[in-house]
């Protein structure tokens, strides 16, 4: 038996950054909003034991239970896709705050080049990439999105400095000053300056000082404990949805969150959606939540899956190139270099976004005319806190066990640094999302299938940027430098990043995108889909800041639609 609930103005599927922003903005405008979160409620008070590395970083306390739902993976269409049985390449969050609870806090705006990448690349280089790469503009410019970037940064209290000569113009400075410039960061700053680059402090959601945001939510100052990524913050100092936008939404009296609510279908009638069907993950009772507007605000994989199982939009077909749903899936490339030093450093202290960066090799900030790739990477040194279980750096040719292994482990724990890049990933016709024809989740819904492999573009970018990172490390004075190994096939097992993008891409034309630049679905005017799935490609940064800006843009669109109806573009 299915229970139908009272109709609301807006229902969001997922309560992380995007769901929280949508809820806060709509509720402040008087709209009745329900957020459906398949995980449980949690907050700062739950993280007093957060320094348990085994519980959170190894056993994944804050992550999705893959015994209930996972994804299947293959490198190409000729392989059999198999389920991911444990967290590996990326970490899927679950519970209030989603991935916004366990993120590191590195917060970026994508470059102006990113939003018009096809136009700008062709103007400068012609058809540099083959037709197999599905390059396209986003249907919005950096300047159009800038006010929303500014809004997100003020909500989050981002700590930073406007010293990067390569990024887009800002309408205002960061709301809080940058984090502490440690001895390790100063070593990077000196080396990159000597090489003629332009170092700057990384924009951080681990705040440098206490801050009260425009909604009246207070965020504390970072304690530099080194337990950010994979952990919630016990101090309330890492900006997360559950300490900012969710309380702001609740304060209006127009917002309700239903926990343990796993949405399995978007309900529709004609050319509009009518609500969602969800299952209580504890009792397995079924409910229908009617709504005037449905907003998909879960992780990119689930957003795409819900559209697919609900048969909304045309599934991308790599054979014909037709369809947009599932198209342009992209990941990230991680070039870099590790340096081993003689002197000891306080590597065990830090914060998720305590770092310095150079953008000299990001976007189109350098000449690609004679290179076999486009775009690039932000190259950074981060002092995130070296934890004892998962951090064990060893110089090349060290035995993998025995006395020499133990000696090298002890020697290098506080004598190792890494310069790493977040390399951009261009969409390829063979990299996409679809439904699996064999495997289903615990609720009887087909699993999402990921077909993905690195491309020649990826390999060329990785090789070039790893050399640049090695040059920085040498200038920093490392006695031994180990450059990043060349990449071959993508493997879903070792952790890389949780920066998946694409599948529900935005654009100016329904022929090549799923949603418009207000994140309104082209086929269903009262359905909105917001998240990193909207990215037409992946850039050289973490996606969160750009996702936050898109969420504020989407919220504005939902409010306008609720008043006037119709297409927003």
UniProtKB/TrEMBL annotation:
Domain Glucose-methanol-choline oxidoreductase N-terminal: 216-328
Enzyme class: oxidoreductase
Keyword set includes Flavoprotein: yes
GO molecular function, one term: gluconate 2-dehydrogenase (acceptor) activity
EC number from the UniProt entry: 1.1.99.3
UniProt entry tagged with the keyword Ubl conjugation: no
The Glucose-methanol-choline oxidoreductase C-terminal domain, residue ranges: 427-551
Keywords recorded for this protein, A-Z: FAD, Flavoprotein, Oxidoreductase
Tree of life domain: Bacteria
Pfam families in the record: GMC_oxred_C, GMC_oxred_N
Record-stated family: Belongs to the GMC oxidoreductase family.
UniProt name for this protein: Gluconate 2-dehydrogenase alpha chain
Organism: Planococcus koreensis
């Amino acid at each position: 038996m299915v229970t139908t609930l009272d109709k609301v103005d807006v229902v969001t599927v997922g309560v992380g950054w995007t769901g929280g922003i949508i809820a806060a903005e709509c509720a402040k405008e008087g709209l009745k909003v329900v957020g459906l979160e398949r995980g449980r409620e949690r907050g700062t008070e739950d993280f007093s034991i957060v320094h348990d590395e085994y519980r959170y970083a190894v056993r994944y306390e804050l992550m999705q239970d893959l015994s209930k739902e996972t994804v299947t993976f293959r490198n190409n269409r000729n392989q059999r896709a198999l389920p991911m049985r444990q967290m590996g390449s990326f970490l899927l969050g679950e519970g209030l705050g989603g991935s916004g609870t366990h993120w590191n806090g590195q917060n970026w705006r994508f470059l102006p080049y990113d939003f018009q990448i096809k136009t700008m690349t062709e103007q400068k280089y012609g058809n540099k990439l083959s037709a197999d790469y599905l390059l396209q503009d986003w249907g919005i410019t950096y300047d159009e999105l800038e006010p929303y970037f500014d809004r997100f940064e003020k909500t989050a209290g981002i700590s930073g400095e406007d010293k990067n000569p390569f990024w887009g113009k800002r309408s205002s400075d960061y709301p809080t000053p940058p984090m502490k410039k440690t001895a390790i960061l100063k070593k990077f700053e000196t080396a990159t300056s000597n090489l003629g680059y332009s170092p700057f402090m990384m924009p951080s959601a681990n705040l440098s000082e206490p801050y009260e945001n425009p909604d009246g939510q207070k965020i504390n100052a970072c304690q530099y404990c080194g337990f950010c990524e994979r952990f919630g913050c016990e101090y309330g100092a890492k900006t997360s949805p559950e300490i900012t936008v969710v309380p702001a939404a609740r304060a209006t009296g127009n917002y309700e969150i239903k926990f343990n609510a796993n949405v399995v279908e978007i309900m529709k009638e004609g050319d509009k959606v009518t609500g969602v069907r969800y299952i209580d993950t504890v009792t397995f009772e079924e409910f229908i939540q009617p709504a005037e507007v449905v907003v998909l605000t879960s992780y990119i994989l689930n957003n795409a899956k819900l559209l697919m199982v609900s048969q909304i939009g045309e599934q991308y077909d790599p054979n014909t190139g037709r369809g947009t749903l599932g198209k342009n899936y992209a990941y990230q490339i991680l070039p870099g270099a590790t340096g081993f030093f003689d002197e000891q450093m306080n590597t065990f202290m830090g914060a998720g976004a305590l770092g310095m960066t150079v953008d000299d090799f990001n976007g189109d900030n350098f000449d690609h005319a004679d290179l076999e790739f486009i775009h690039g990477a932000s190259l950074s040194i981060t002092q995130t806190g070296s934890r004892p279980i998962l951090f064990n750096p060893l110089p090349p040719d060290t035995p993998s066990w025995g006395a020499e292994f133990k000696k090298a482990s002890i020697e290098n724990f506080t004598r190792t640094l890494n310069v790493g890049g977040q390399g951009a990933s261009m969409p390829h016709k063979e990299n996409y999302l679809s439904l699996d024809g064999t495997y289903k989740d615990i609720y009887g819904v087909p699993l999402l299938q990921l077909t993905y492999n690195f491309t020649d573009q990826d390999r060329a970018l990785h090789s070039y940027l790893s050399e640049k990172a090695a040059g920085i490390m040498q200038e920093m004075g490392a006695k031994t430098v180990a450059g990043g190994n060349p990449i071959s096939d993508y493997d879903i097992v070792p952790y890389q990043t949780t920066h998946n993008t694409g599948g529900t891409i935005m654009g100016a034309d329904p022929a090549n995108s799923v949603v418009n630049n207000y994140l309104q679905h082209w086929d269903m005017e009262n359905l909105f889909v917001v998240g990193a799935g909207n990215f037409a490609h992946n850039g050289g940064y973490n996606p969160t800041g750009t996702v936050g800006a898109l969420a504020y843009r989407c919220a504005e669109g939902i409010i306008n639609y609720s008043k006037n109806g119709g297409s927003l573009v």
